Amino acid sequence: MINIVLFGKPGAGKGTQAEFLKEKYNLTHLSTGDIFRFNIMNGTELGRLAKTFMDKGDLVPDEVTIQMLQSEVDKNPHSSGFLFDGFPRTLAQAKALDNFLESKSQNITATVALEADDNILVARLLERGKTSGRPDDQDEEKIRNRYDEYNQKTAPLMDYYKAQGKFHSVDGIGAIQEVTERLTAVFDTL
Question: Is 134 labeled as catalytic in the residue annotation?
């Protein structure tokens, strides 16, 4: 079984690349954003709980996020592996994911970060915001705030995974196919 964590700032191309990678390597793609939206839209118990925090403008606690993710993993017992997109975002989440996978006699195989210059990513998101309808993709200040949060909370995970020998960095700038080829070169060594 192969379990990959895909890192990258908003706009780095995680979603685009995840679509290709899940097909090529027969992985189950778990996007925390998609999982949140599904649970909230379908009024699941966890979705209703998450919504109580979101409605107050609070971050959903790790325990709720982790329970949603565990539920998705449990729904796919025959998967040949998972591609985690948007999770973990903090060291506490990384450790919780490790503990959960260990309870299933699994582990994180590798983490792959799509690296790109902030200014290029801002331009990408502003362009995406013209068609996505997402207000957080239409305001440069909000985009840069998201990057600050990423730098403070998520970037330290790179050291956590480097210490385990599981961190890989890939240049996320270029044509989609070029980035895909770079990612494939890493995945093929795992």
Answer: yes
Residues 88, 3: Cα–Cα separation, whole Å: 13
- Cβ neighbors of 40 (< 8 A, separation 6 or more) are 47, 48, 50, 51, 54
pTM above 0.85, yes or no: yes
182: annotated active-site residue: no
Indicate which residue of 9, 14, 22, 182 is catalytic. 14
**Of residues 160, 167, 173, the one with CA closest to residue 186:** 167
pLDDT tens string, the chain, 190 residues long: the values are 899 999 999 899 998 999 999 999 999 999 988 898 899 999 999 999 988 887 886 778 888 889 999 999 999 999 999 999 989 988 999 999 999 999 999 999 999 999 999 999 999 999 998 998 877 788 898 888 888 888 888 888 999 999 999 999 999 999 999 999 999 999 999 9
Catalytic residue among 95, 134, 144, 162: 134
Catalytic residue list contains 48: no
Active-site residue (options: 51, 142, 146, 166) = 146
89 is catalytic: yes
